[in-house]
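Input sequence (514 aa), recorded before submission:
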Amino acid sequence: MTIEVLHPMVHSLTKSEKRYFRLVAGRQTGDKLNAARPDVARPDATRGFLRLFDCLLRHETPGDALTTDLDRAFPGATLEPARKHLYRVLMQSLRQFEGDKRVEVRIGQLLHDSQILYERGLVQFSQDQLEKARTLAEQHERGLYVVVAARQQVEQWVRWQFDGVDEPTLASQHALIRTQLERTQTALHHAALYETLLLRYRTQGMMTSAADKLRLNDLLLEEYQLLNRHSRVGPHGRSFAMQQQHLHFQSAYFRMIGDGAGSLRVYRELDALFQQNPTLWAEQPLYYVQLLEGILTDLRLLEQYAEMPFFIDRLRLIDTPLQGLKQTIPYVVLYHSLLSLVDQRCYADAAALLNTFLTDAPAFERGLAQLALPARTEFELLLVRLNVGQGQLSAGLHRLNRVLVRPARSLPRPLYAQSRLMNLLLHARLGNADYLTYALRSVERKLNATGNVSGGEQLVLTLLRHWLTGKLSAAVLARLDAFSGSPADHQLLRDLDVRQWAERMTDRYGRKTT
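Predicted structure, token format:
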């Protein structure tokens, strides 16, 4: 494990996890006192990986200072063994620290306990552990673990020559295994359909034409056939996972065809399902976060901003043991809060909210860099909108340039198009007509190369050409109001603040402004 991975890993530890790591390290070195006291000089046995741990903690960010410190503390080839050992001890301490917090770990421990008991001739006690493992797996809908526990029971019956087991009991066990395998296969198939649809949405955005929507029918038909094959169990017999996947699929489909109201309706059903089954997702709340984000996205699409704070607060209150998700949620909360304010042109309120996070600007930027690239890009484009709304055009352009240097293949097409069009509009605000003369042709050529140019994109390009030729008049506002594009086109115009730009570029008499 490289220093580039160890450094953020060490800094992701909570105070409790750091204390537990030092305790485990002290046990390994036989020097608990010195392990608990980092300020005390340590013997040679503890000097390697613990010194590396302290060195990584001293540096908030990787860079030349950390490299110099490491070269001084670990001359020659002494860094390599310390690095490897630190990783092993760190992972061991985290596994032990989490202990029984995860259902999969508890089930695995019961299965392991059963194997140990059986190998020592304690068959009945071994079977008891397997029953506990199977019951726990069934309660939390972990079908594969049910199969593993059931198969381990059967294998023990075989080795014990079926002592106390009759044929109906064996047949029942086989039926259980088949049922769980079928349910698991169905769940995996359903998940594959949802993930494929979600990928199409992330990469292509909303469908803007009838032909694009028609291409979704393959997934829609396959999902219908999948549900129909299992309709014999009835709607109340479906598992939480199956209902969740179905509703997630439906919401993504409605969103992709631009039906925000339909998507929001399905999300509310999904929300009710989550509220009824909190124990089934509490350990892995990722889908619940996606649910709340989906509701917020639909509310924004429908311009129902008054309802957004309620769901933003619910997102803020999520308490999860997953450190990665725990670090991401504050940025998701901030993003949707800022998005609502910027859409409504409440730039002063948005700036005040953002400043509460910028008290430690380097830490904010590091956290932003940890987001997935599409989410980080959406956030940065929103911050550019805020800069522009405040009249800070140079600051907005500086941040936007960080997005523009990313290659086209790294971004979904909607984000790629939005960033390029935002750049053109920003240069128009700055009055850089010479730059726009050739940049406009370049962007149009690149957009054509990445797919069909949508009605909204074409409208923005047309308005920019009118501005360059001095033909942009106040009549453009009526044209924007009468624009009858798809929901995706309207969302693009809102994300680009095209109306605000047009209002600024034209006066009430239709003259071009500087």
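Checked by second reader. The chain has four domains: 3-98, 103-165, 188-315, 407-513.
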